[in-house]
Amino acid sequence: MNKLASMTCEACQADAPKVTEHELAELIRLIPDWGVEVRDGIMQLERVYKFKNFKLAMVFTNQLAELAESEFHHPGILTEWGKVTVTWWSHSIKGLHRNDFIMAAKTDALLDS
Ligand SMILES: C[C@H](O)[C@H](O)[C@H]1CNC2=NC(N)=NC(=O)C2=N1
């Protein structure tokens, strides 16, 4: 399992630091299937997961919802027939925190179960 997936999110206050460029370069290597998007000036992690149908996409979506609640850190989720687009960023700092990389790795780990 990805070492990030075994970590837990820290409480992310509004003054928490965004990841630096160096940390971003290091951390993104640990989650190679994820991309970095910038929307309205907010850096985000994004991945599209493919499924055989809508029902399986919804099963994954609900597993992800449980994960988010367990860590109290929540993604953007677009669930469609056969695919789920997951987007992680930290609302409180309007950017990327280490928590987002941890949650991306934990999201990937849902497929291992
Ligand atoms: C309103 C609620 O406190 C916030 O949304 C919490 C919980 N979930 C969260 N999720 C994410 N991704 N970022 C946050 O800053 C965050 N903060």
Automatic annotation (TrEMBL):
<dbReference type="InterPro" id="IPR050376">
    <property type="entry name" value="Pterin-4-alpha-carb_dehyd"/>
</dbReference>
<dbReference type="InterPro" id="IPR001533">
    <property type="entry name" value="Pterin_deHydtase"/>
</dbReference>
<comment type="similarity">
    <text>Belongs to the pterin-4-alpha-carbinolamine dehydratase family.</text>
</comment>
<dbReference type="InterPro" id="IPR036428">
    <property type="entry name" value="PCD_sf"/>
</dbReference>
<dbReference type="Pfam" id="PF01329">
    <property type="entry name" value="Pterin_4a"/>
</dbReference>
<dbReference type="GO" id="GO:0006729">
    <property type="term" value="P:tetrahydrobiopterin biosynthetic process"/>
</dbReference>
<keyword id="KW-0456">Lyase</keyword>
<protein>
    <recommendedName>
        <fullName>Putative pterin-4-alpha-carbinolamine dehydratase</fullName>
        <ecNumber>4.2.1.96</ecNumber>
    </recommendedName>
</protein>
<dbReference type="GO" id="GO:0008124">
    <property type="term" value="F:4-alpha-hydroxytetrahydrobiopterin dehydratase activity"/>
</dbReference>
